[in-house]
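Re: that chain you flagged

S.,

Sorry for the slow reply, it's been a week of failed gels. I finally had a moment to sit down with the sequence you sent. For the record, here it is as I used it:
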Amino acid sequence: MSSRIKWLSDIIPPEQVGELTALNRIKVARTPSGSLCLLCKGGRMLCGKLRCPIIAKAQAIAKSSRLIISESVEGSTPPGVFVGHVGYPKVYIGPMVPPYFGDTEILDTPELWIGKTIDDVIDYRFSLIRGKTLASVFDARTGGKLLDVLQELAMGTHPVDSEAQFTRRPRGVISLSEDTQPFGPAAPLRSFKVADVDVDQRIERAFYDRDLKASDAVVELYEKGVLVTRIQRAFSLGMFGSAAKRKLVPTRWSITAVDSALSLNLIDRIKQHDTIDEYRVYSFKNLDNYYVAILMPEQWSFEWIEAWFPGTTWNPDERAAAPAMMGDFEPYWGRMTYPDVGGCYYACRLAVAERLNRERRQASALVLREIHPGYILPVGVWGVRESVRAAMRTEPQRFDNFHAALDCAMTKLTIPLKKWIEASELLKRALFQKKITEFAP
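Prediction finished late last night. Pasting the structure tokens below so you have them in one place:
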């Protein structure tokens, strides 16, 4: 028996080792748990219902709130804007304004939320009242009275005093999604006024450069130190790209598009560098989520696996026997399809690529996430991006072999190794696939 199989037999019954080895030759099942909620996450209606019952319940609770008492709201927008996706290419756009003045930047800046409680984040998001006006995504090419104001807001560096008039009193609605932050009350917008905006000249220059490709604008702004959240905000309002091709991009799509573009750019760079020379384990806990990243001294590849425990949003049955698990993987040359796990995949990939790019190294990366019941509702992709960034800023535990690194990683998680192996392409390859170096004299 090889040392690899002997090591596994200490964890997995011997009769199952052969089964797992065979799985290495089979494409990883994208939804080993079979959880429709996990695959759908409220957006694909895979259960056959016209509305997601989880989201419907949350909305019913929110409608009972009495946050707003009139059709007018005055306050300092962070600045915050939103572009919807329902009805595309006709979508709702509008500002997000809290009912008070002051330094409200934190309400719409996820980069400032690490260390905050989930109740803090919910309070931030439900403080923002969203105005809605129907627009065509192609309006980004010609502009418009409201769109021009929103685009100017998106270039802002500080909160801006504003006044929003609605056609009716805004009603509370909880929107659950792993791709976007939750939102508070909303209503159709009658008018919107803002004070003078102190614009970020870096974003302003990209906006007025009608020959600069959108992808190039995103990368240039990132390299100049503009927060990813602000790049995503401007991208969603169609502020980048050649004049004839600009379009509004729904907020949830813009978040993923920017994370994907930036991480691809960084991956192209790190592929030019040598691999790390050790195995590393990074870990971080945030909002009752456990994150563990294992970096291996190999050419670039990447895998993200998340496990939703019973009683969490996308595995709501508290009597379920096990966490619902899902993962996606890319080899050295990348992937051609959208990952089933959604935008969290790209948010995590960006955080890992940032760390490797700073070191001018490449590695194979496996990132595992456990979502425990204290994570009472999804707060958006930012949670993954900023949590993995925080993990990558810590000093890793270092090992000279994969087995030791994996043993360390498992001490920081609660799900048995066997379950992770069943869900992971990278683990199967690392544990069961022989390398040519093993045959070297």
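What I noticed first: Residues 251-270 form the longest helix (20 residues).

Talk soon,
D.
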